Description:
The structure holds two protein chains of two kinds. Chain A is α+β, with helices and mostly antiparallel strands. Chain A has helices spanning 3-22, 25-30, 49-61, and strands at 32-39, 46-47, 64-70, 73-77, 80-93, 99-112, 118-127. In chain A, strands 1, 2, 3, 4, 5, 6 and 7 form a seven-stranded mixed beta sheet that branches. Chain B is α+β, with helices and mostly antiparallel strands. Chain B contains three helices and six strands; from the N terminus they run ααββαββββ. Chain B has helices at 3-21, 25-29, 49-61; strands spanning 32-39, 46-47, 64-78, 81-94, 101-113, 119-128. Chain B has a six-stranded mixed beta sheet with strand order 2-1-6-5-4-3, with helices on one face. Chain A binds chain B through residues 37, 39-45, 75, 77, 80, 82, 84, 86, 105-107, 109, 122-130, and chain B through 37, 39-45, 74, 76, 78-79, 81, 83, 85, 87, 106-110, 123, 125-131.
Amino acid sequence: MAKNDLAKIKAFNRQYIAVCNAGDAAAFEKMWTKNAVWLTPDAPKLKGNKAVAAFAKAQFFDPFKIKFTQTLKVKIFRSEAFGQGTFRAELTSKADGSTVTRTGNFIAGLEKQKDGSWKYSQGSFNYDSPLAPSP
Amino acid sequence: MSKKDVAKIKSIVRAYCAAANSDNPDAWQKTLDDKVLWLPPDAPKLMGRKAVVAFSKERFFDPYKIKLSVKLNNLKVHGAKAFASGSFSSSLTPKAGGDTINLTGKHMCEFRKQKDGSWKYGELIWNNDKPLA
């Protein structure tokens, strides 16, 4: 496993966390490949980085202020990497200020780009528990 | 990517479905690596075959008659690991009686090559296309 690639993927993960915390849909779109696939719970498969970013914007970035973190462990195979990790997201409603905390797990694939950077090519996540009903 | 490995991986997926569809958790667990990691929706991650089998018996094998079909797309083999995503459809008919639950969804998985050259599920995450009614 190239140390340089591992360092770049770690940096990519830090950037991904920062982008999620900033709720920056345009930057989020750039972190996925053009043909990326995102398999989110209870929703049809999303194809392409534009669809992925539109979903993230509608489901997370627009309605919530986000405090997000995730771990990512990868295995690198030349220009591809596969990994899994855990995440924690504190989602505070912009409408009423209420906060829900969700934790979960994911599996992801990454592809090395021509410029040597890495992007998500596929990903899927699940929450650790169902969303508690509102009181 | 060896055609032989691809054929073996596809055959383990067929065995996984066949065992589920014949209500045979003993055969089903043989398609899982000892250290399998399973990430089911709305549940904590499960590590190891015993934990996965216990969960699956409680959630699927014991309460339901299962009809499962799995499609693999985008299968990539890298040495002793292989990665794929795909889709599935399943029907869960309560053994105690009641309406069948029909589900469609998608998955990502890692397969691990065993010492004998066979392949088994090493990691699996899946989720449904829509919330349960």
